[in-house]
Amino acid sequence: MDADSRAWRSAWAIADRVAVAGVVAAVIADTEHEWAGQWHWLIVAAIWAGTAFFAADVVLRCRLAIVHRHGWRRGLSVYLRSASAWVDVVAAAAVPAALLAGLDRDTAYLFGLLGVLKLGRYSSGMGLLRRVARNAAEPLLSVLLAFVIVWTLAATLAYLLERTAQPATFGSIPLAMWWAIVTLTTTGYGDATPVTLPGRVLAGVVMVSGIGVFALWAGILASGFADELRRRDFLRNWDLVAKVPFFSSIGAGLIGEVARLLRRHEVAGGQTVFQAGEPGEAMYFIVSGAVEVRVPGGPVRLGENGFFGEMALISGAPRTATVVALDACILLELGVAEFRHLAGSRPELMDVIHQESSRRAAS
Fold first, then answer.
1. Cα angle at 251 between 247 and 256, to 5 degrees?
2. Is residue 70 scored above 70 in pLDDT?
């Protein structure tokens, strides 16, 4: 993809987000009667302009799919099988379809809020959330089953214990289910509370059970997110490590080992990476960009395939130089603990680092 195409796609993506924001703001404003009366024409124009943009977006994405897939049948098939395509279609058709279905104007315009779903395309976190939900589906469903069981039992017991004392609130299991769901989620609206001693004991047990169930859900999701983040960082680091010529000779198997030890570190142009006199806690490999090492003998420029910061790790002494990024850099950071691990597992790499450190110290 050339620079013009990337710039055009970026501009279109920004316009898409602006259209979503405009439609959502207009629909929300339309529910405020004072604003709806004062700014009626602007609200209607924003809703229909955004809807028209959504329709144009669908047409454009269909066109791009046809061009990239080398055929209208295959292109449309691939595009329409994706979840994002249906989100695009729903966002474009929701308001017109609601009006054609006979809904009043105020109700039909509320369907414009479905356009907010389009923002999921621009969030990498949404894809991460989908992968976590897919990978953790079985334990999540198991906890959901436990929740339903506890909910049903709690409502049944509350019905048995409180139906005589509070027939209006606990006179049936469906009525008691409202109290059970509110208590399990520890929301506690207060509109339904047990008055008998056994009922209050039950309420305490249900509250504790609710905390346990939601703690399990939170733990499963947190663990899933942590696993996915580690996986994403590992794959990203793998690609970066493979691009550094310094590691090109160690083989694919050992690249994976090294990738686990390194952390991606992005530095803006003009930013100081570290200063002289600071304790040495990490060394850095340059993937892209360039840095200036400011030493007493004069500044030294390091570019791609360079590394710096190793002398403080080897000697244990404070930093002897200040390093400043000359432009935007992507660095791979190797902490002191990981440095020692690499020294034990890959002595040939450490030999190169030691040789370079000796050369720099001599010069």
1. 80
2. no
Partners of residue 322 on adjacent β-strands: 294
Select 251-362's CATH number: 2.60.120.10, 3.80.10.10, 1.20.1250.20, 2.40.50.200.
2.60.120.10
CA 311/CA 309 separation, integer angstroms? 6
Minimal CA–CA distance to 311: which of 339, 341, 345, 271?
339
pLDDT at 76 over 60: yes
The CB density around residue 114, as the number of other CB atoms within 10 Å, is 20
pLDDT mean across residues, the chain: 84
328 vs 360 pLDDT, higher one: 328
Separation between Cα atoms, residue 120 and residue 84, nearest integer Å: 8
- Helix, strand, or coil here: 70? coil
Q: How high is the pLDDT of residue 298? A: 82
From residue 273, give the alpha-carbon distance in Å to each of 114, 231, 314: 45, 26, 18
DSSP per-residue codes, 265-304: EEE-TT-EEE-TTS---EEEEEEES-EEEEETTEEEEE-T
Q: How far apart are CA 71 and CA 338, in angstroms?
A: 51
Residue 147: pLDDT above 70? yes
**Coil, helix or strand for 361?**
helix
pLDDT higher than threshold 60 for residue 1? no
Tell me the CATH architecture of domain 137-226. Answer: Orthogonal Bundle (1.10)
For the chain, domain boundaries? 3-122, 137-226, 251-362
Q: What percentage of the chain carries pLDDT values higher than 70?
A: 90
Residues 6+ apart with CB under 8 A from 268: 325, 328
Q: Where are the beta strands (DSSP E) in the chain?
A: 262-267, 272-274, 282-288, 291-295, 298-302, 307-308, 322-325, 329-335
DSSP secondary structure letter of residue 163: T
3-state secondary structure of 124: helix
Q: Are 284 and 309 spatial neighbours (Cβ–Cβ below 8 Å)? A: yes
Q: How confident is the model at residue 244 (pLDDT cuts 50, 70, 90)?
A: low
Chain-centroid distance of CA 83 in Å reads: 18
